[in-house]
């Protein structure tokens, strides 16, 4: 099995993408609603990622 | 008198639960656990099943390629410890093992092929461990979705 070495950013984006796919599929009733909810979840993940990253950067001093 | 009345929505839900026998929903749910996405396939939700198979398998494979730790050794070692470990350790090891098991055949194959990565320091390994557990948690969500489809609570 090949080994991969991802950065924090790459791993977080991959996690956000795959999780958003499943959350979108299981949460809504029509295909359009699923797509929109998946995109919404992905956006929330990315927003939280940047917000928490800046918070830790600024909090670290 | 009013307390004995059941709302139409509650009555509808109760009727759905009574209408669908266990033999109708249990096989697809078990299949969804064993092979991620397959529960949707047998219920003829092919596209959704395909996406779930892709997402869960990709999450799991990336976890393996990042050399994430699995929890079977920690879980079984924990049971023989004297004195027993603290509550947080037990919750983490038990939850991690359940998360690993929830990926079904993917986890079984890694165990059968002898994959037993110890928990080591480093952000890549750490992400890998989380990816392996998250794949199982996503599959549990998919199993709940299969249950709702099979019991006709959802299209």
What report would you give on this structure?
- The complex is a heterodimer of chains A (61) and B (155).
- With 61 residues, chain A is mainly alpha-helical.
- Chain A has a domain at 20-60.
- Chain A has 2 helices and no strands.
- In chain A, α1 runs antiparallel to α2 (31-60).
- The model of chain A has no long low-confidence stretch (mean pLDDT 92).
- With 155 residues, chain B is mostly helical.
- Chain B has one domain (2-150).
- In chain B, 70% of the residues lie in helices and 0% in strands.
The helix content of chain B, as a percent range, equals: over 70%
Mean pLDDT over the residues of chain A? 92
Number of distinct helices of chain B:
8
Mean pLDDT of chain B: 86
> What is the terminal-to-terminal distance of chain B?
36 Å
For the largest interface in this structure, which chains are involved and how many residues does each contribute? Answer: A-B, 18 and 26 residues
Query: Distance between termini of chain A?
Result: 40 Å
Task: Note the overall shape of chain B.
Answer: globular
Classify the helix fraction of chain A into a percent range.
over 70%
* SS strand fraction of chain B: under 5%
Structural class of chain A: mainly alpha
Order of helices and strands of chain B: HHHHHHHH
Radius of gyration of chain B: 19 Å
Total number of beta strands of chain B: 0
Largest sheet of chain A: none
Q: What is the number of strand segments of chain A? A: 0
Which structural category fits the helices and strands of chain B? mainly alpha
SSE order and pairing:
The complex is a heterodimer of chains A (61) and B (155).
Chain A: H1 8-27, H2 31-60
Helix pairs in contact in A: 1-2
Chain B: H1 8-19, H2 22-34, H3 38-42, H4 46-65, H5 72-79, H6 87-101, H7 105-112, H8 123-150
Features:
heterodimer, A: 61 residues, mainly alpha, 0% strand, B: 155 residues, 8 helices, globular
What can be said about this structure in brief?
Chain A is mainly α. Chain A has helices spanning 8-27, 31-60.
């Amino acid at each position: 099995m090949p080994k991969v070495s991802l950065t924090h950013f790459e791993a977080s984006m991959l996690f956000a993408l795959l999780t958003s796919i499943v959350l979108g599929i299981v949460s809504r009733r029509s295909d359009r609603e699923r797509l929109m909810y998946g995109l919404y979840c992905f956006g929330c993940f990315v927003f939280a990622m940047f917000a928490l990253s800046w918070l830790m950067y600024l909090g670290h001093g | 008198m009013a307390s004995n009345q059941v709302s139409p929505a509650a009555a509808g839900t109760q009727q759905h639960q009574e209408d669908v026998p266990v033999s109708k929903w249990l096989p697809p749910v078990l299949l969804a656990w064993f092979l991620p996405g397959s529960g949707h396939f047998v219920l003829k939700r092919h596209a959704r099943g395909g996406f779930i198979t892709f997402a869960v398998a990709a999450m799991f494979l990336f976890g393996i390629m990042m050399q994430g730790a699995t929890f079977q050794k920690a879980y079984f070692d924990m049971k023989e410890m004297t004195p027993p470990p603290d509550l947080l350790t037990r919750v983490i090891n038990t939850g991690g093992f359940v998360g690993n098991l929830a990926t079904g055949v993917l986890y079984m194959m890694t165990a059968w092929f002898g994959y037993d990565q110890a928990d080591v320091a480093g952000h890549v390994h750490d992400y890998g461990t989380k990816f392996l557990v998250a794949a199982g948690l996503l599959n549990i969500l998919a199993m709940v979705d299969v249950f709702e489809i099979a019991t006709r609570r959802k299209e």
